[in-house]
């Protein structure tokens, strides 16, 4: 891993921009990516409403759930495939292909009536709809100065969360008119994102280092050889297992303590409102911290917040616990999001970014199973388990995100291929 920071802590701190400076310094290509991603998230109805849509068409609940599971599996595959594709064909082209294909396939669902075909198409939509994510993150890294990375990823998360929060409400409104209309809008927003990315292609921006011919021989094995990065990925997995308990074990805990669905919805709304309104302000100060300490602090607070749920049943306790883990999310996530692009060799940037999504998706998948099993054994045990997993996650974060030694930097520099010549330099 390369050390691309400034020479001194004072220099790093002085270079960190404010929120306003970051917003003013975001180049046009990145605004296109942010706007396209926001529009796409606003129209991302498929995963949320697929089960309701299929049951409304007459499919059984189990069949609809199977289709949703196929979409989920496709989503994991799509992120990994997107990392490889973006390193080979370029970031902007990956977004164009990913979003255009997702839009066309989403539109086709309206005309499908055969269950095996619906399941297959849902899986392919999952692949296509998520393949853009490594490419969009890589664009953020390559199009902005390093000192802006943490803040730019906070802006990226704000756009993502705004779309994710408002999207379901828009979907419910469209459903009141027609399920078909909802999927038409979903397809249009995906294609709209593809057109935004096509502007980057036409202007010659967004290609990154993907045209390096030596990238064609690279694979995820190169990522797996980075032992420090594997520790970082382990931390992401453990944190995901802990974090997802707010959707699995927490509802059970609230019900056992005599609280209804309205209070649970209030806690989730509190989390969303804090992230959308406060994360940029938090990041203004968090970006001055060394990366590993920012992520370790964030991961630690997420675990502390989850562990506090054991102190219920008072409503105030649940509110305080939710505030604590939400603060941890705001502190650690922007830096953790920027880290893969910072430490990745340029010709592997897409794969490094995609690899960081994989352990989180696995954690989100197995976390509910682990949490509910622990809760059934003992309601308190799931929250104490969160504390133990968090302690391990903090430790591996501090080790995995430590600055590499001089020997490690030298080995990385020797292994990284030289940049491909530009057309003007080609004989």
UniProtKB/TrEMBL annotation:
UniProt keywords, alphabetically: Cell membrane, Membrane, Transmembrane, Transmembrane helix, Transport
Pfam family, one: MFS_1
Record PROSITE patterns: MFS (PS50850)
UniProt xrefs under InterPro entries: MFS (IPR011701), MFS_dom (IPR020846), MFS_trans_sf (IPR036259), MFS_Transporters (IPR050171)
Membrane-spanning residues: 30-52, 64-85, 105-129, 150-175, 181-201, 229-250, 262-281, 293-310, 316-340, 352-375, 381-402
Ranges of compositional bias, category Low complexity: 415-427
Compartment list: Cell membrane
Region ranges (Disordered): 406-427
Membrane topology: Multi-pass membrane protein
Major facilitator superfamily (MFS) profile domain boundaries: 29-405
Gene3D superfamilies named in the record: MFS general substrate transporter like domains (1.20.1250.20)
Name the UniProt record assigns to this protein: MFS transporter
Native source organism of the sequence: Streptomyces nojiriensis
């Amino acid at each position: 891993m390369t050390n691309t920071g400034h020479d001194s802590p004072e220099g790093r701190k002085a270079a960190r921009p404010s929120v306003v400076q970051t917003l003013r310094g975001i180049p046009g290509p990145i605004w296109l990516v942010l706007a396209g991603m926001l529009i796409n998230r606003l129209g991302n109805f498929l995963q949320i409403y697929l089960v309701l849509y299929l049951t409304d068409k007459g499919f059984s609940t189990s069949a609809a759930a199977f289709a949703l599971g196929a979409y989920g599996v496709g989503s994991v595959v799509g992120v990994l495939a997107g990392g490889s594709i973006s390193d080979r064909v370029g970031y902007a082209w990956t977004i164009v292909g990913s979003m255009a294909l997702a839009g066309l396939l989403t539109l086709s669902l309206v005309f499908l009536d055969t269950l095996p075909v619906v399941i297959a198409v849902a899986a392919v939509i999952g692949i296509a709809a998520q393949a853009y994510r490594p490419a969009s993150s890589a664009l953020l890294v390559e199009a902005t100065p390093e000192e802006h990375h943490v803040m730019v990823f906070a802006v990226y998360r704000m756009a993502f969360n705004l779309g994710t929060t408002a999207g379901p409400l828009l979907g419910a409104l469209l459903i009141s008119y027609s399920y078909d209309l909802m999927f038409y809008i979903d397809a249009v927003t995906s294609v709209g994102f593809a057109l935004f990315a096509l502007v980057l292609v036409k202007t010659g921006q967004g290609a990154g280092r993907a045209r390096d011919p030596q990238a064609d021989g690279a694979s995820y094995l190169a990522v797996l050889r980075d032992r420090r990065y594997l520790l970082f990925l382990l931390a992401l997995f453990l944190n995901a297992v802990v974090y997802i308990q707010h959707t699995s074990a927490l509802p059970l805990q609230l019900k056992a303590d005599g609280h209804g669905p309205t209070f649970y919805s209030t806690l989730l709304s509190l989390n969303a409102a804090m992230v959308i309104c406060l994360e940029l302000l938090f990041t203004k100060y968090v970006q001055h911290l060394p990366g590993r300490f920012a992520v370790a602090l964030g991961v630690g607070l997420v675990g502390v917040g989850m562990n506090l749920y054991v102190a219920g049943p008072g409503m105030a306790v649940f509110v305080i616990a939710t505030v604590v883990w939400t603060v941890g999310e705001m502190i650690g996530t922007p830096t953790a999001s920027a880290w893969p692009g910072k430490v990745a060799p340029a010709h592997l940037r897409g794969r490094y970014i995609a690899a960081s999504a994989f352990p989180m998706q696995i954690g989100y998948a197995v976390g509910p199973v682990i949490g509910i099993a622990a809760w059934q054994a003992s309601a308190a045990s799931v929250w104490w388990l969160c504390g133990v997993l968090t302690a391990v996650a903090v430790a591996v974060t501090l080790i995995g995100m430590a600055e590499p030694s001089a020997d490690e930097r030298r080995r990385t520099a020797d292994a990284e291929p030289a940049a491909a010549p530009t057309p003007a330099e080609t004989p």
